[in-house]
Amino acid sequence: YQEEKARGEHRVHECQTPVYLWVEVDQGKVHIHADVPPESPTVRGFISLLARNLDGAAPAEVAQIPDDLLDQLGLSETLGMTRTQGLTAILYRIKRSVANAA
Fold first, then answer.
1. How far separated are the first and last CA of the chain, in Å rounded?
2. How many domains does the chain have?
3. pLDDT average, residue stretch 3-11
């Protein structure tokens, strides 16, 4: 992972925080690995929740996650526009990567 990170691969550019995201589908199960700096606890927490809850999930389960998840959780107003856009981009990246790998 570190070599790919050093080359800038797997970066979620839409997020202001330097987030690197690796998504794999192995034998029909999703696996997510992320690298997020510790000084970004909100982003780390969001990715951690996604990774823990989606690890081992089927691609179809990931596809069912609503695109407006943050709105449905009532977090968009609290987080602000910029952070919401970044976190939404992370969710889109996960969903797109899973769809492409499945």
1. 21
2. 1
3. 83
